[in-house]
Structure formats: C-alpha cells, structure tokens
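Comment thread on ticket #2218

A.B. wrote:
> Attaching the input chain for the structure job we discussed in standup.
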Amino acid sequence: QVQLAESGGGLVQAGGSLRLSCAASGRTFSTYAVAWFRQGPGKEREFVAAISRSGGTSYADSVKDRFTISRDNAKILLFLQMNNLKPEDTAVYYCAAGLTYHSGTYWLGRQSEYDYWGQGTQVTVSS
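C.D. wrote:
> Ran it. Output below, let me know if you need it in another format.
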C-alpha cells in the first residue's frame, strides 16, 4: 500500500517556476513507476511526466524542455520542476504510482497503469 501527498502548488506569473513535491509512504516506493498528471478547468486529466521502474523518463509534448521529473528514493519523494510556466499549465496536479513494468509515453501516459493517486495540488499561472 502506498499513500501519496502532493505539495508545492500555488499562484505564479507566466514565465515563472514552481517545484511540486509528492511525499510517499511505504518502503517499497522506490520500486514503483511514478508519474505526474494534471487536470485543467473543464478538461480531462492528462499525462505530464513519468519515471519508469527502470529509471527512464517520459514527458508530454506540451511540457517537454520546460518540466523535469525526478525522484529521491532515499527520502521517498517525487518532484516536478516546472519552468517557463504558461497560463495553459493551470491545473490540479496529481502524482501517481504503479507497479507497471512498461516504459515510454504510450504506456506510462495511461492512467490505468497506476494504482495509487494523491489528492492533488492546485497550480495557477496568471498571464
């Protein structure tokens, strides 16, 4: 069983940066694939970035070269560094974890690959 809790959201101007954190419970967290998803106002939840169980990273095209996903297994933390934020990045951001062995955006971008989800943290980017 894994419990996830996001933090670090807030209000930022366009062009600014935020760093989201996801604290996890459970000593086996390092063995999970992990990801960030987001849900903007009036939109479906969508994939942002992921780290596979083998350590490979995947990103949605819309955030590539602006966002960086990383993890600290010793501290059982997941991060999302978001730079050059745009108003269209406004959303509730969720972290997720799953025991999938898949890699690549095609698989890790699917919500069904993840068994555990946090409650979300709001990110608002003003123009």
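A.B. wrote:
> Thanks. Noting for the ticket: The two ends are 40 Å apart (CA to CA).
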